[in-house]
Specification:
Layout: H1 11-22, H2 26-48, H3 51-67, H4 78-92, H5 97-101, H6 105-114, H7 122-127, H8 129-144, H9 149-160, H10 165-172, H11 176-197, H12 209-218, E1 233-236, H13 237-240, H14 252-261, E2 264-266, H15 271-278, H16 281-287
Antiparallel strand pairs: 1-2
Helix pairs in contact: 1-2, 2-3, 2-4, 3-4, 3-15, 4-10, 8-12, 9-11, 10-11, 11-14
Length: 288
């Protein structure tokens, strides 16, 4: 699986598939979608904090891109063009469920504090391990929703996908220096709140995922039989970055970054995503 955010990404593969696709090769078009679908889906999932919304956003992005594919002049790489469409769509689309529900850091952390606390023994903690991990991923991903859309996108690209600042700036449409500055601001905002309220970052904070899991299960936010964020993956975000090693110093700031790098990279969206793209009425008429 080629990582489009890597500096070693083979752009020529996309170019060859595009030539075939615009000349009516449906299999080439499908392969082009499959090369990028999982990355757009993971971006969508981090942006929306909801699997259904992530699937919808992924379909919407590809429908926009494919309908414009014949106009793609290859003045930039296809990946830059596609992810610029993705970014613009994410920034301008209507607010989704989690954005309407999660307003800001204060209200988000207050809602976590209101959930009941259950002290688990070792056996209970082992039994609920997958659900505890689900809550940890779900909760920290929810913290991203407290950032505004542009901050969230830059943080996801720069911190979680470890995107090169030059490519990141091309996709967002700003200078590399600006990309670095905005990434630092997003990182600082996130760290500041997590340091004040999250037990993962600051051990003096009382909040612990294991102690909150039963409460979230009882409230229906975590379903042990249907994990949403801790499912369908074989890689973590830090493995996806294709770096030989990520140096983590013994500082709270680095621990904060590692929490997000340890999020799962889901290798598969629902099959209905690809079906929804290829069976879209507008695309079907274009393909015919």
């Amino acid at each position: 699986m080629d990582n489009p955010f890597s500096i070693h990404y083979p752009d020529q593969v996309d170019s060859e598939l595009i030539k075939l696709a615009v000349n009516g090769d449906k299999k080439a078009l499908e392969n082009l979608i499959l090369r990028h679908q999982v990355f757009v889906y993971n971006l969508s999932l981090k942006m929306s904090h909801n699997t259904d919304d992530a699937q919808d956003l992924t379909q919407e992005v590809f429908i926009k891109a494919i309908t414009a594919l014949g106009k793609f002049e290859q003045k930039s790489s296809f990946r830059t063009w596609l992810y610029r469409i993705t970014v613009n769509h994410f920034l301008n689309t209507r607010k989704r469920k989690s954005e309407l529900h999660i307003k800001d850091f204060e209200s988000y952390f207050s809602s976590i504090e209101r959930m009941p606390v259950y002290e688990l023994n070792a056996a209970e903690e082992n039994e609920l391990k997958e659900s505890i991990d689900e809550l940890r991923i779900r909760c920290t991903a929810g913290m991203l929703m407290c950032l505004d859309r542009e901050q969230r996108l830059i943080y996801i690209l720069g911190e979680m996908f470890r995107i090169d600042h030059t490519l990141g700036s091309e996709i967002i449409g700003i200078t590399p220096g600006n990309f670095r500055v905005r990434l630092m601001r997003a990182r600082n905002d996130l760290y500041s709140w997590m340091n004040k309220r999250c037990g993962l970052v600051n051990l003096t904070n009382p909040c612990r995922c294991s102690k909150k899991t039963k409460g979230y299960i009882e409230a229906g936010f975590v379903d042990p039989e249907n994990l949403q964020f801790n499912a369908r993956y074989r890689q973590k975000m830090y493995e996806l970055s294709q770096q030989e090693a990520i140096a983590i110093e013994n500082t709270i700031e680095d621990l904060h970054g590692q929490i997000f790098l340890d999020h799962p990279f889901q290798l598969s969206a629902s099959p209905k995503v690809l079906d929804g793209i290829l069976n879209n009425e507008l695309l079907r008429s274009i393909l015919h």
